[in-house]
């Protein structure tokens, strides 16, 4: 029984995740060593590296816990309610005791470290939507009682995150939710109603957004949009994007060499966070960029393949949500540093500096691998055994398949 479970794990995903994390740890050190040498960081070149290393250790623990824990436990009423209420409480707590950094009140300080609740809200929304829509499969096309309630809840979460303000994370949560909703099994009529509802909501909220724009869309945030439109003409607002272009172009095919970046010498702001790919391109060239992109692409495509093979609605929607989260976040990060979209401050999954983001991603990947294990076990053993009610099968079904 145990040997079959061990054989059912997707070890290629495990390897891909830890390759990315290890590579990210090296690049965090390289990209941050200059800024970390400043007096406010104790003149310690490994300041950010050490903090990221601790986050990776915590993330590794979370990864193995969620990889072993039966994924269906998250769909139980008590666990699901705890996840949802805990996530909402943490988001609201930010407005009471939140710490402001980079013009956003998005962190809660625990000692010398900050926790960003909005990061963990991504996984909470994925679990909530997957559980709710999995339970509503029998009447998924009844728009009023099946589709609308989860959408209203998700909109509330997105608005709460947006007014921190953290538009990048709010946008990601919204797109993840939309992906899960579109894959939930609703018919064309329900989809049409959803599109119409979205259009009407946007029209009705436009006056409110205009009124609040003065407080939420500060000069710095508006500068991101202005700099995105004309980075070379707007010296002030386009500074970061122009230096990103310089880093991307300087690396060529092979790069300048690990640790040899010039832009990290206080030319490119946030080099170790949302612009770390620019440093990778400068130091390791196109080969370094392709290494990261191919591993991320493998994780995303493998996740969607797991969703397609999984016969359980909850597991399938979980895999879709986690895979889309990584894909969306990657696109927004790369779109910002290449000028395809305005800069949002979103980190590159598994690579950028950020403890909350890394911990969330590792826990999410553990869940995805657990879904994969269940799916592989079912396809390799349960469907092939001549006596499906044998003791090993009954034991597995009790612990993994039929968990309540």
TrEMBL record:
Give the E.C. number(s). Answer: 2.4.99.28
Signal peptide as annotated in the record: none
Gene Ontology biological process terms, A to Z: cell division; peptidoglycan biosynthetic process; regulation of cell shape
A single GO cellular-component term from the record reads: plasma membrane
Topological category with respect to the lipid bilayer:
Multi-pass membrane protein
Keywords for this entry? Cell shape, Glycosyltransferase, Membrane, Peptidoglycan synthesis, Transferase, Transmembrane, Transmembrane helix
Ranges annotated as spanning the membrane: 12-35, 55-73, 80-101, 107-131, 143-163, 169-188, 195-217, 275-301, 313-332, 352-374
- Return the Pfam families for the record: FTSW_RODA_SPOVE
Q: Which InterPro entries does this one have?
A: Cell_cycle_FtsW-rel_CS, FtsW/RodA
Location(s), subcellular: Membrane
What family is this protein classified in? Belongs to the SEDS family. FtsW subfamily.
Protein name (Swiss-Prot/TrEMBL):
Probable peptidoglycan glycosyltransferase FtsW
């Amino acid at each position: 029984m145990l040997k079959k479970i061990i054989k059912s794990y997707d070890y290629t995903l495990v390897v891909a995740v830890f390759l990315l994390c290890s590579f990210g740890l090296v690049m965090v050190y390289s990209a941050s060593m200059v800024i970390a040498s400043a007096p406010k960081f104790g003149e310690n070149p490994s300041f950010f590296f050490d903090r990221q290393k601790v986050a990776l250790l915590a993330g590794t623990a979370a990864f193995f816990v969620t990889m072993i824990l039966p994924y269906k436990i998250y769909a139980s009423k008590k666990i699901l309610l705890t996840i949802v209420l805990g996530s909402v409480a943490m988001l609201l707590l930010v407005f009471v005791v939140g710490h402001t950094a980079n013009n956003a009140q998005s962190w809660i300080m625990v000692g010398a470290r900050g926790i960003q609740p909005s990061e963990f809200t991504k996984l909470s929304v994925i679990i909530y939507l997957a559980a709710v829509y999995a339970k509503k499969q029998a009447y998924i096309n009844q728009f009023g009682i099946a589709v609308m309630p989860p959408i209203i809840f998700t909109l509330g979460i997105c608005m709460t995150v947006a007014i921190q303000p953290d538009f990048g994370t709010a946008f990601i949560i919204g797109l993840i939710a939309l992906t899960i909703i579109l894959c939930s099994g609703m018919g064309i009529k329900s989809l049409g109603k959803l599109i119409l509802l979205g259009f009407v909501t946007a029209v009705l909220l436009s006056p409110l957004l205009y009124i609040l724009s003065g407080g939420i869309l500060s000069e710095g945030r508006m500068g991101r949009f202005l700099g995105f439109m004309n980075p070379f003409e707007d010296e002030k607002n386009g500074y970061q994007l122009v230096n990103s272009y310089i880093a991307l172009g300087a690396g060529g095919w092979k790069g300048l060499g690990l640790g040899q970046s010039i832009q990290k010498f206080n030319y490119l702001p946030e080099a170790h966070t949302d612009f770390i790919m620019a440093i990778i391109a400068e130091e390791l060239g196109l080969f370094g960029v392709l290494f990261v992109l191919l591993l991320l692409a493998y994780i995303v495509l493998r996740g969607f393949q797991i969703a397609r093979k999984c016969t359980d609605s909850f597991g399938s929607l979980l895999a879709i949500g986690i895979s889309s989260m990584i894909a969306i976040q990657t696109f927004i990060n790369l779109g910002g540093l290449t000028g395809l979209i305005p800069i949002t401050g979103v980190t590159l999954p598994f690579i950028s500096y950020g403890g909350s983001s890394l911990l969330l991603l590792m826990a999410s990947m553990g869940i995805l691998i657990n879904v994969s294990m269940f799916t592989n076990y079912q396809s390799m053993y349960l469907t092939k055994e001549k006596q499906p009610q044998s003791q090993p099968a009954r034991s597995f079904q009790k612990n993994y398949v039929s968990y309540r």
